[in-house]
Amino acid sequence: MHACNNVTLLFKLYCLAVMTLMAAAYTVALRYTRTSDKELYFSTTAVCITEVIKLLLSVGILAKETGSLGRFKASLRENVLGSPKELLKLSVPSLVYAVQNNMAFLALSNLDAAVYQVTYQLKIPCTALCTVLMLNRTLSKLQWVSVFMLCAGVTLVQWKPAQATKVVVEQNPLLGFGAIAIAVLCSGFAGVYFEKVLKSSDTSLWVRNIQMYLSGIIVTLVGVYLSDGAEIKEKGFFYGYTYYVWFVIFLASVGGLYTSVVVKYTDNIMKGFSAAAAIVLSTIASVMLFGLQITLTFALGTLLVCVSIYLYGLPRQDTTSIQQGETASKERVIGV
């Protein structure tokens, strides 16, 4: 039993480690493409292409999983083409994530950067709360402490002192806080909702991915048209694309698939811890590659992130069974 638990723990740690490294590599590569001297590409088209590649990869993996062309076609016919309710169910995360991204942009436009950085990290405890409410799980007091410690650590790692500017920007703090609250709730709900759908049935993970990415492509195409439609008509869909941009898209695609595996076999809270570790790693890589300066707040934030990951991963003791054992031993002593 203990050996089985150890294997499961090692598998989860392996999944999280790979996800962390991939997320860090993606962040560094993305930073390079956005700071190089090349013409900037349209990020909305890159997101759309990423969804298409994730869909194609999921279809390929499902074909290999089914083992034959006949079973593959039957699976697509039954779970995709013949299941409009399931497609609608998996469109929820895509729509909610779209709302989240727009609300985050609205909040950033109406709040100071420092306030935005702090409040947006509330998505971490919000995800934990959604996990408790939607999946009927319990977290120990130590795990709750580690969640809020992670929230503080990520805030410090990403902290950038406010800089004075002569440009006066009209902001609506009330609108900003309302938008950030919606973004935080959307982040927690969408992730846990997808986890619940994955774990509430025996449907293949890759079928679920196909269902979600189909709706994701539609949502991102709408975003492309609304955000950059006029410029894309003028310059072209693939304007500014280089080998580095395609590499970033590849990392985002594979990372997205791997994230679904992590959610399937661990949970969204652990995914949040992995994302925090990726932020730390990508920042350290930026120090070596881009000359970024390490600050005291970054060092303190990194320490908090590491400690919180350790605390959350500690095994939870069943105090009830310990107490029962102690009671039984006391009764034997009294009997003697």
UniProtKB/TrEMBL annotation:
It holds the Pfam family Nuc_sug_transp. Keywords: Membrane, Sugar transport, Transmembrane, Transmembrane helix, Transport. One of its GO terms (molecular function) is pyrimidine nucleotide-sugar transmembrane transporter activity. The chain crosses the membrane at residues 7-28, 40-63, 142-159, 174-194, 206-226, 238-261, 273-290, 296-314. It is found in: Golgi apparatus membrane. The keyword Transport applies. Its main location: Golgi. InterPro entries: EmrE-like, Nuc_sug_transpt. GO terms for cellular component: Golgi membrane. It is a multi-pass membrane protein. The keyword Membrane applies. Belongs to the nucleotide-sugar transporter family. SLC35A subfamily. PANTHER family: NUCLEOTIDE-SUGAR TRANSMEMBRANE TRANSPORTER. This is Cilia and flagella associated protein 206. It comes from Callithrix jacchus.
